[in-house]
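haha ok so turns out i had the wrong file open the whole time. this is the CORRECT one, sorry everyone. sequence first:
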Amino acid sequence: MVITCIVAPVVLAAILGFAFSNGAADDRVTIAVSGTSAQVLGFAVAAAQLPPQVGVDLVSSASILRGGVDDGVYSAGVIVSARRANLADLLIPIASPGTDSRVFHIKARSSSLVGKEWAESVAAALSSQLYAGRVHPGEAYPVAVISLTTDSLGNAGKGVLNYFAPSIAVIFLFIGGGLGLRSLLLERSAGTLVRMAAAPVRPNRIVAGKLLAIVITGLVSIFVVWGATALVFGADWGDPWGVILMCLGSVLAMCGLGVFLTSLAKDQQAAFGIALLVGLLLALLGGNLLPAGALPPVLQRLSLITPNGWALVGFGRLSLLHDRVMGVIGPFGVLCLIAAVTGGLALTRVRRMVRP
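then structure:
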């Protein structure tokens, strides 16, 4: 339990910390925009929710953009033509980012995929501002020439650590819950459980003790990963009260599911197989291996039927969107519901295991 629930997640989090804590996310990113007013640009920047490392400057023309991208000064650019555009043309960057239209054209260096992504993001924000202008269906809308350029912003950085640190901790909660119940299977096969059941101790007390130990171990595991990544590598999990709430909900839901599935096994070998296979499936569907947004649409919807998927929704709101504790009440409620259902089923199963 110590190795699986504490040492292993801390080691994996440390690897991520050494890899990403001093990554390119600390570099200054410059976005240049030309041919639009400061007011429209300000609204677009606010809508794009750019991180603090990204700055925005106005440049004089699109030719400067093209030359800057060709010379490597800028990583990417968005050129918005000066022609009059229909609403359908303005919707393209929002509905299908990166798709060229009569209005928006993205110019990027092949070596800067991230710059291209930022260009798409700001283009969508600009199009949303133009679309939100007082325009009725079928009317044309005058659009100025707008150019976006970015410096370098890699996937490295603390943003990656902020996401994957709780992701690693959450998936190990499931494994830890299964391991906790495997000890009960071991006691049953060794004959210890029979002696405990024959003693003047109610079966409910034995079950409560086991489940309490599993929950405490899970809380220790996720809190240790939180402390190690935050203190040593500077990871920001978000609002501390929100993190505590999500840690509690994640532990209850993941351990409840782990205990219930493990209780279906007849012996330790079967329990290990269930924990391994289901754990890998949950990690894939819930977004622990890859962010849910990088998965196909079908898998993105399936992630919301997993407890770890909802856990990452809550942790993502805290660390990436910087929500406060009230912003994770919804995911916490879903996790508590999952914990109540799986925990109730697990309690019924485990009671049968400890009856003499």
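Residues 2-20+157-354 form one domain.
again sry for the mixup
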